[in-house]
Amino acid sequence: MGEQTPRYHRIADDLRRLIDTGELKQGQQLPTEHRLMEDYSASRNTIRLALRRLTEEGLVVAGQGRGSFVRKRHPAAVWDWSVLESRSRHSARHNGDQWSTIVEESGREPRQEINVSIRRPPPDVAEQLGLDPETALTVVRERVRYVDQEPYALADSYFPEELVRGTPLMLPEDVSAPGGVLASSGLIQTHYQDEITVRMPTRAESQKLALPAGTPVAVHRRTGYDKDGRALRVMITIMPGDRHIIRYDVAAE
Fold first, then answer.
1. Which of 34, 86, 99, 172 is deepest in the core (most CB within 10 A)?
2. Distance CA 56, CA 76 (A)
């Protein structure tokens, strides 16, 4: 059986064992290709195939011409999505949005890069908001969210332009209000619909989030509705799979 296994698989298995046992530590540089060729009596191509296998598994990252390194693990951010946007969590003492507040409460440092624009919504977002994608306009708040100076998530929120015109949501900065900015404008979200998908990131997402190869992302889409069933907002959050835990509390009735 062992002899039928490709040579580079066996080399990758041995290097994986060294990583799993901690003999090769997070952030540590792996031996050079030449050293690995000597250690395993293997060709350069075989060593490169083994390293590529570990890279695809998310265990190893390339160091821009400096060799390969054991991937560092990010501290997980834990999000209880069942209460994250509940109005009871809002209070006048919050200087930023709830995301920033929760990061601060965990003892870590939040930061956001925010861009606001007015444009046609993508067809899927237009459908969620009940808008005509050819004629309707949305206010789009695009955010790159950082924790301890590392990019942790992308969060894009879409609002029907006619609903939020002239509100603080038009400002390219952290905005908050008791009960939520929408609620302070008379637009009260009474329930949400969530959709979560998992996929590999686009090139743009990988660049913005500085993702090593082999890192999937979770896409969390939340649509907020008022009491009459009118969609007020769609928020799409892109979360790297190596640094987030999503938690829900669901009643059993």
1. 99
2. 21
Nearest to 122 by CA among 156, 169, 173: 156
* Sequence-distant (≥ 6) Cβ neighbours of residue 40 within 8 angstroms: 11, 14, 46, 47
> At 189, phi and psi to the nearest 5?
-80, 120
Q: Answer yes or no: are the C-beta atoms of 218 and 239 closer than 8 Å.
A: yes
3-state SS of the chain is: CHHHCCHHHHHHHHHHHHHHCCCCCCCCECCCHHHHHHHHCCCHHHHHHHHHHHHHCCCEEECCCCCEEECCCCCCEEEECCCCCCHHHCCCCCCCCHHHHHHHHCCCCEEEEEEEEEECCCHHHHHHHCCCCCCCCEEEEEEEEEECCEEEEEEEEEEEHHHHCCCHHHCCCCCCCCCCHHHHCCCCCCEEEEEEEEECCCHHHHHHHCCCCCCCEEEEEEEEECCCCCEEEEEEEEEECCCEEEECCCCCC
* pLDDT per residue as tens digits for the range 41-83: 999 999 999 999 998 888 998 866 678 999 888 888 888 888 8
Q: What is the pTM of this model?
A: 0.81
φ and ψ at residue 184, rounded to 5 degrees: -65, -20
User: What does the alpha-carbon distance between residue 184 and residue 115 come to, in Å, rounded to a whole number?
Assistant: 22
Q: What is the spatial distance between Cα 183 and Cα 188, in angstroms, rounded to a whole number? A: 4
Please report the pLDDT score of residue 183 as a whole number.
Answer: 86
